[in-house]
Amino acid sequence: MRKLCVIPGDGIGTEVTPVAVRALQRLLPDLQVVEASAGWGCFEQQGNAVPERTLELMRECGAGLFGAVQSPARAVPGYRSAILTLRQQLGLSVNLRPVRSWPGISPRPGIDLMLLRENSECLYIGQEHMASADKAVAQRQITRQACAILAQRAAQVVRQRGARRITLVHKANVLPLTCGLFRDTCRAVLATEGLDGLVDERLVDVAALQLVEQPQRFDVLVTTNLFGDILSDLASYWSGGLATAPSLNWGDGIALAEPVHGSAPDIAGSGRANPIAALLSAALLLRYHWALPEAATCLENAVEGFLNDTQGADLGTQTTERVAEGVLARLELSQK
Predict the structure, then answer these.
(1) How far apart are CA 172 and CA 20, in angstroms?
(2) Are 164 and 219 in contact (CB under 8 A)?
(3) Which domains does the chain have, with CATH numbers?
(4) Which of 132, 139, 133, 126 is closest to 79 using CA atoms?
(5) Average of pLDDT values for 98-124?
(6) What are residue 250's DSSP bridge partners?
(7) Nearest to 66 by CA among 276, 281, 251
(8) What integer pLDDT is reported at residue 316 of this predicted model?
(9) pLDDT for 48-99, tens place per residue?
(10) pLDDT at residue 319, as a whole number
(11) Buried b / exposed e across 44-61, counting CB within 10 Å, b at 16+?
(12) CB contact at 8 A, 25 and 324
């Protein structure tokens, strides 16, 4: 029996996660679902953004669905982003961010790429200090082990996709030690996997330009944490923006699906939260963690069918329930 730990989080997270759970239960009738707490609201109530019980439930289930996190734009003593804590405490060291053209919401057809982002280190280790009253310093960490894990997962994704190209994105001309270690480790692992003939490279600034100009040139991109964070948000424009952008935090025997949008406090509680990113994140969980590609495709096709029939009309004003009913109805039809 498969188990799912649902962590609604803050804001619209509590509204979009139930839709994705309904879809997963339609596809996996024996799915056992438990709920756990994390996020800014949890911190305000309990003094801890990610309680130990939440980590225990995630480890017990091996699979999770996260809704959204609201983080303050200032330093708050004792607070650290819930999603960063979950990634690091659970060893979710790889982040998958697909970008593809969807009917009615994508500005250009024919785009289908996957960005793999190292998810546990780089500047996100949170090592900052004031060197003096006028100087703040942040430490960047890149390890051979984390890069090797990322490259191994990239090889897995490349084979599943039948990818034609792997693009390593770095800034080794300015950061020869950290970015150099990333590039050389990834190249070595991919060569061992027999994929060295597919590998090319881009400096991160060139990659950003080409993702704007010619996104169809890319297939699988592999990069470090900060660069991946920025580039994946940029690339999401081609699939309809952050409101429809899914992701999967992927570890060894454990994974956490996460829609990329934030907590959207301006629309929280209005019933207008768009659940498509949560649904597509659930599809990533099906495909890459539970190894159920047919079920994943079924869910993605239901989303595509809904968008094709509505041509994305006024997604920002449609109710959460209307989108949910449209996708779930198509999912039910596909199973008959």
Answers:
(1) 40
(2) yes
(3) 1-93+243-336 (3.40.718.10), 107-239 (3.40.718.10)
(4) 126
(5) 95
(6) 94, 255
(7) 281
(8) 60
(9) 999 999 999 999 999 999 999 888 878 789 898 899 999 999 999 999 999 9
(10) 85
(11) eeeebbbbeebbebbeeb
(12) no
Residue 315 has pLDDT above 80, yes or no: no
Q: Is the pLDDT of residue 313 over 70?
A: no
Given a contact cutoff of 8 angstroms between Cβ atoms, the answer to whether 38 and 10 are in contact is: no
At 326, list the tokens. 């449209």
Residue type present at position 148: A
Beta strands (DSSP E) in the chain are 3-9, 32-35, 63-68, 94-100, 112-118, 128-132, 135-138, 166-170, 199-203, 220-223, 248-250, 255-257
- The tens digit of pLDDT for each residue in 163-217 reads 999 999 999 999 999 999 999 999 999 999 999 999 999 999 999 999 999 999 9
State the alpha helices, DSSP H only, in 162-224: 178-192, 204-213
**Residue 104: count of CB within 10 angstroms of its CB:** 15
Decide: helix, strand or coil at residue 330: helix
Name residue, tokens 């790889």: 94
The answer for 127, left when phi > 0, alpha when psi is -120 to 50, beta otherwise, is beta
